[in-house]
Design a protein that fits this description.
By secondary structure, the protein is mostly helical. It has one domain. Helix content is 36%, strand content 8%. The protein contains 6 helices and 8 strands, in the order H-E-H-H-E-E-H-E-E-E-E-H-H-E. It is globular. The structure holds iron/sulfur cluster. The site of iron/sulfur cluster (SF4) has 10 residues, from loops.
Length: 214
């Protein structure tokens, strides 16, 4: 996988990551500071998901993997093998499942990302409120991260009864910064002014474990 990209392309991808963090993601987290309770050792975002990534993201992740001690590498490979078997079983038993197979990220160890500096784009946006376009009118456009129900992000202004963010709670806390939802779709993060001069294409997005051969 790493060999599918040149050293220059991977360096270019790294530069892209730095730019989207600096110009978008870090700025968003800073703006949402009163509502964000992400901290080291909290790994809810990595415990149940599908982790959609492109090939270059996975190649960069594997670059991080290549620097891990052998013992840890073996552990991750075994986890991936097991997950692939579990996915196959799940799909056989639940052919009509809309949600699809959800799993703990194989790179998570002791509640920490073992390839943190090399993590994918989606991993960097976890925890922010985002909006989705094209949803039915009756459905909420803004998506609050699920950890709101665990007393984490946005929970200080969330009303569990109405399932909405509460202006009253905001006032009570004296917070003047409105909670904002961002466009964090991969389509946008992979196609913007920062990506115009890249020497690679992001291409197809797949669930992380689907990139690994059976
Ligand atoms: S790669 Fe790291 S940050 Fe991304 S889901 Fe896996 S453990 Fe979490």
């Amino acid at each position: 996988m790493i060999d599918d990209f040149s050293t220059e392309q991977l360096a270019n991808y790294k530069a892209y990551l730095n730019l989207i963090e600096e110009r978008m993601i870090n700025k968003y987290f800073e703006q949402q500071k009163p509502y964000i309770f992400c901290k080291a050792g909290c790994s809810h975002c990595c415990e149940k998901g599908q982790y959609p990534v492109t090939k270059i993201e996975l190649a960069y992740l594997l670059l991080g993997f290549s620097q891990l001690p052998n013992e840890q590498k073996i552990e991750i490979i075994e986890k991936i093998k097991k997950l692939k078997q579990e996915k196959l079983k799940f799909e056989t038993e639940n052919p009509a499942s809309k949600e699809g197979f959800m799993y703990e990220c194989p790179f998570l160890k002791n509640n920490k990302c073992s390839v943190y500096e090399f993590r994918a784009v989606i991993c960097r946006t976890h925890g922010l409120m985002f909006f989705v376009e094209g949803v039915k009118d009756e459905e909420p456009k803004n998506k609050i991260p699920f950890c709101v129900h665990l007393g984490l992000n946005y929970s200080n202004i969330y009303d569990e009864k109405t399932k909405t963010l509460s202006d009253v709670k905001m006032k009570e806390l004296g917070i003047t910064q409105e909670p904002l939802a961002y466009n964090l779709s991969l389509k946008t993060l992979f196609n913007n002014e920062i990506t115009q001069n890249l020497d690679f294409e992001f291409g197809k997005v797949r669930a992380m474990i689907d990139w690994f051969p059976d």
